[in-house]
Specification:
This protein has about 400 residues and is an all-alpha fold. Among the domains are: about 90 residues, no CATH class; about 70 residues, Serine Threonine Protein Phosphatase 5, Tetratricopeptide repeat (Alpha Horseshoe), CATH 1.25.40.10. About 70% of the residues lie in helices and about 0% in strands. It has 19 helices and no strands. The longest helix is centred in the N-terminal third of the chain and has 27 residues. Pfam families: DUF6596, Sigma70_r2, Sigma70_r4_2. It comes from Paractinoplanes aksuensis. Belongs to the sigma-70 factor family. ECF subfamily.
Length: about 400
């Protein structure tokens, strides 16, 4: 096997096994820094040995055995860990055991990374670091901050885990209802940043959205009976299926009503629709299931005009009860405009625009501008688009709004 082929094999294995390996080591040794150190060391060992010996039949088990041995060696060299090592009664593994399997403890990392004691801004970063296997520079790029800034955040988060004694475990049955939504929110936040970037030269970051989907697939594998996990995966798939049609070749925005629906990902939509049925069956629907149902109506329609807008509005009514969010209210108002006309939608948006939470919410001002433009109120539309332009984060959004303003001024 050539060095390039070996490197590709190691990368594929590492991507697949990193989260499982790190989680198993965290559970065994109770130290995230140590687990990360020896996980990286095991990968480096694979890069040395696999080109000579070949990729093992059980590469994950090989990495686990190697990492565990290195962890024991590290603990024995460090007097501060001596007592801990004795208490754990850990024995070194002298040879990799290729046929051995090790348990999948990734669920404990999902809950640790999304622990409510951690600052919201680092939960997603830790999830990408621990479960996606991204390095600090890659995580920094995902959140559009300098690597040094992200490194400091991750260090502080690990310190918080140690000092607050946040346990590396899956919550008990009594904690489950209060903790799973936080995990789902972290994953959805990662996806949202991929769907519409907060800033930068591109509207969307498909690689980040795809990584969020991969992580939710893992979570669904670990929690197959949780319908809201199915709902979140369905929502992501049904939205991500439109990715190729959302921008033109030059990166400019293509509005929903102008998109070539033939470019939507049919197999992804089919998978999403099947998951929606799972998420909506067996009891009251959760918020992600309802959002997925709304996305399904968009994906099943032949055009914007033929979308079942009464049903979309009805689902938003349900969603407002489940999650009374002003952002949901904005989306509902836009749907009402397509069901009942622009004047009806504008009344609802005008009632929302002075909310403290929405005053600087760009999509509200974009929606107002579009409705005002449809009503022929050009001066007010210019004002709304101007406000939206001030708030727009990405270059394609800014360019799109400038074009709208230029068209109104001509």
């Amino acid at each position: 096997m050539s060095s390039s082929e070996t490197g590709a094999a190691v990368e594929a294995v590492f991507r697949e096994e990193h989260g499982r390996l790190l989680a198993a080591l965290v559970r065994r040794f109770g130290d995230l820094d140590l687990a990360e150190e020896v996980t990286s060391a095991a990968l480096e060992a694979a890069l040395v040995h696999w080109p000579v010996q070949g990729v093992p039949a059980k590469p994950g088990a090989w990495l686990m055995a190697t990492a565990r041995r290195k962890a024991v060696d590290r603990l024995r060299r460090d007097q501060a860990y001596a007592a801990k090592l004795a208490l754990m009664q850990v024995d070194a593994v002298t040879e990799p055991v290729e046929g051995a399997e090790f348990p999948d403890d990734r669920l404990l990392l999902f809950f640790t990374c999304a622990h409510p004691a951690l600052p919201p801004e680092v939960r997603g970063a830790l999830t990408l670091r621990c479960l996606a296997g991204l390095g600090t520079p890659e995580v920094a790029r995902a959140y559009l901050v300098p690597p040094a800034t992200m490194a400091q955040r991750i260090v502080r988060a690990k310190k918080k885990i140690r000092e607050a004694r946040i346990p590396f475990r899956v919550p008990g049955a009594d904690e489950w209802p209060g903790r799973l939504p936080g995990v789902l929110q972290v994953l959805y936040s990662i996806f949202t940043e991929g769907y519409v970037a907060s800033s930068g030269p591109s509207l969307q970051r498909a690689d980040l959205a795809a990584e969020a989907i991969r992580l939710v697939r893992i979570l669904r594998l670990l929690l197959p009976a949780e319908r809201e996990v199915a709902g979140l995966l369905a929502l992501m798939l049904l939205v991500h299926a439109r990715r190729d049609a959302r921008t033109a070749a030059d990166g400019s925005i293509v509005l929903l009503q102008e998109q070539d629906r033939g470019r939507w990902d049919g197999p992804m939509i089919a998978e999403g629709l099947a998951l929606v049925r799972v998420a909506l069956t067996g009891g009251p629907a959760g918020p992600y299931a309802v959002q997925a149902a709304i996305a399904a109506l968009h994906d099943e329609a032949a055009s914007v005009a033929t979308t079942d807008w009464p049903q979309v509005v009805a689902l938003y009514d349900v969603l407002l009860v489940l999650t009374p969010s002003p952002v949901v209210a904005v989306n509902r108002a836009a749907a009402v405009a397509l069901r009942d006309g622009p004047a009806a939608g504008l009344v609802l948006l005008d009632a929302l625009r002075d909310s403290d939470k929405l005053r600087d919410y760009g999509p509200l001002h974009v929606a107002r501008g579009e409705l005002l433009e449809r009503l022929g109120r050009r001066g007010e539309a210019v004002s709304a688009y101007g406000k939206a332009l001030d708030l727009a984060g990405t270059e394609p959004e800014q360019a799109h709004l400038r074009r709208r303003l230029a068209a109104l001024s001509s």
